[in-house]
Amino acid sequence: MATFARVHLAFERGEGVWLYTADGERYLDFTSGVAVNALGHAHPHLIAALGEQAKKLWHVSNLFEIPEAEHVARRLCEASFADVVFFCNSGAEAVEGAIKTARKYHSVSGQPERFRIVTFEGAFHGRTLATLAAGGQKKYLEGFGPVVEGFDQVPFGDLAAVKRAVGEQTAAIMIEPLIGEGGVRVVEPSFLRALRELCDRNGLLLIFDEVQTGMGRTGELFAYQRTGVAPDIMTLAKALGGGFPVGACLATREAAKGMTAGTHGSTFGGNPLAMSAANATLDVMLAPGFLDRVKQIALLFKQRLAEIKDRYPAVIAEVRGEGLLIGLRALVPAGSLVDALRAEKMLAVAAGDNVVRLLPPLIVSEQEIAEAIVRLDRACARLDGGPAKPRQ
Could you tell me whether strands 316-322 and 205-209 are parallel, antiparallel, or unpaired per DSSP bridges? Predict the structure, then answer.
């Protein structure tokens, strides 16, 4: 189906932060499959883990115990607030699981009327009918019939609006701890603390959508760990399998008390092959020093990006984000900057609010950061009407 406005460009193989076309052209990949290939391309530990598991067992279904899934679940819970995990295959499925978990919690608590979830304008939670309704963006909802009931969007960062939206039917509040698709907008920890207090005061569940921000992208394993605020439910996907499709819905045991046998399911969720990828990804990310290095390289990158912003004030208005989820708010059309970067053989992706996202693999080196800056400099010069400007 013609559902993707694809660029006329294809890749044959990848290595680290680089992608190669069939005729040998090399591109610097600062898209990472939209925050998926967090360990880059062809990571040897992931290759070894998948190859070993592929020789043994791919799929058995959730009719049986899956020790590999239990192992990954234990590791995720030990590294987070959570007690239990439901595995699926994508971010949208993970968010669907979070929605069902929150609704079911209130139903088994004797309040089945509490099913509504407060979300935020500009958010993106997935492409299923329910997750589209949660995001509330008209451009994605148009033409698909009645919008799934149960979501109340409020302006981003408006605590008073959140309080007004909370009523007798409210079950939960859902937010990305760092807005990705909606323009790489940082959510202040004080705002998240206020949401946590509001949930506790009103008996609501707090859901963090960490599909894009989770798995090391912000310099912590999970973005919420930067804020001092823990949710009741959290969604993961994208980087969880290092490029292999894996999604997960994590929750406290209390929040998940309604999710009993038969209430939810997945044919492929938690299959041994996917779990080998998730386990290998965790091996790398939980190794001593890995996340500290992500923080260090992210700081360097933002410092260098600030230099570019200063050199091209007519092209870049602002550098946003945390860790290696970075946004450049452009003063030219974001798509034009993405195109100019691609002409320099560097891949980036647009976001809302006229922002270009830079999402390098977390293994990116200082030398590769320097190369990205050179290419960004040339791209900005293209749009600024002249050659790259000399440094001051």
Answer: unpaired
Judged by DSSP in three states, 121 sits in coil
pLDDT category at 385 given cuts 50, 70, 90 is confident
3-class DSSP assignment, residue 228 = coil
How open is the CA angle 206-264-77, to the nearest 5 degrees? Answer: 50
Q: Which residues are catalytic?
A: 124, 209, 238
The CATH 3.90.1150.10 domain(s) of the chain lie at: 13-30+290-384
Four-CA torsion 376, 325, 289, 50, nearest 10 degrees: -100
Q: What is the DSSP string of 352-378?
A: TTTEEEE---TT--HHHHHHHHHHHHH
Fold observed for domain 44-285: Aspartate Aminotransferase; domain 2 (3.40.640)
CATH superfamily of 13-30+290-384: Aspartate Aminotransferase, domain 1 (3.90.1150.10)
Q: Tens digits of per-residue pLDDT, 8-57?
A: 999 999 999 999 999 999 999 999 999 999 999 999 999 999 999 999 99
355 phi/psi in degrees, rounded to 5: -110, 145
Q: pLDDT of 158-180, one tens digit each? A: 999 999 999 999 999 999 999 99
Per-residue pLDDT tens digits for 58-83: 999 999 999 999 999 999 999 999 99
Closest CA to 191 of 222, 154, 219: 154
Model confidence at 386: pLDDT above 90: no
- CA separation for the pair 162, 152 (Å, rounded): 9
In terms of Cα–Cα distance, which of 108, 73, 101 is closest to 87?
73
What are the start and end residues of each CATH 3.40.640.10 domain in the chain? 44-285
Gap between the Cα atoms of 264 and 283, Å rounded: 29
Name which of 179, 158, 174, 183 is nearest 102 in CA terms: 174
> Encoding tokens for residue 168?
């007798």
Order of strands across the sheet that contains 26-29: 13-15, 18-20, 26-29, 346-347
The secondary structure of residue 226, as a DSSP letter, is: G
Closest CA to 223 of 294, 143, 119: 294
With a cut of 80, say whether residue 339 has pLDDT above it: yes
In whole angstroms, give the CA distance from residue 104 to residue 382: 54
What does pTM read for this prediction? 0.96
pLDDT digits (tens, 9 = 90+) for 249-289: 999 999 999 999 999 999 999 999 999 999 999 999 999 99
